[in-house]
Write a structure and sequence with these properties.
There is one protein chain. The chain is mostly helical. The protein has one domain. It is built from five helices and no strands. The longest helix has 31 residues. The termini are far apart.
Length: 180
């Protein structure tokens, strides 16, 4: 296995901690901007693209698990780095959508309403938490610290998979209420 020759000092841990805090804070600040930026009507399609990205990420996570169980490290690495890249693309797309479009209120009534909000709140909360775990998992894998990688993945994997799947479910629940 080829691993990056990365200095395994505290500075990388500090950088991961800073990014794990900065990313959600910056996203929250950007989403809190009341004045929307006109990026064009193409941005109204971003939630649909985000659902595809979340779906693909969930599939890649399952496939990545399959590859590592088969001891196919190269395929596992490629699959997981693709999932990580999709996470970055999702983040950019999500921010662009919310910078340029008003939030869509959920219109469902009855039992589906608390289900939707439970899924939404758990999805958002865990999407914030998972950043730290995923960044550490990727760092440990790329720096060849496989024992530490395995230890953090025990937490990162189920949270990331849950966030990916609930992102798709939340999309399908709110999709009928999108304005185009």
């Amino acid at each position: 296995m080829v691993s990056l020759q990365i200095d395994q000092s505290k500075k990388y841990s500090r950088l991961i901690n800073i990014l794990a805090i900065a990313i959600p804070v910056v996203v929250a600040v950007l989403l809190g901007i009341r004045q929307k930026v006109d990026l064009g009507s193409w941005t109204t399609f971003l939630p649909h693209i985000n659902a595809v990205i979340n779906s693909a990420t969930a599939v890649l996570l399952v496939v990545g698990l399959y590859f590592i169980k088969q001891k196919n490290i190269a395929a596992h690495r490629g699959t997981m780095l693709t999932a990580f890249t999709l996470g970055f693309v999702f983040l950019v797309s999500y921010v662009l959508y919310h910078l340029s479009n008003e939030s869509t209120p959920f219109g469902g009534q009855g039992l589906i309403r608390p289900v939707y909000y439970f899924l939404l709140i758990s999805h958002i909360s865990l999407s914030i938490v998972v950043v730290w775990f995923v960044l550490r998992a990727v760092y440990f894998a790329l720096s060849g610290q496989i024992a530490k990688h395995k230890a953090v993945v025990k937490w990162a994997y189920p949270i990331w998979l849950y966030v990916s799947i609930t992102g798709v479910i939340v999309y399908f629940l709110i999709a009928p209420y999108y304005r185009h």
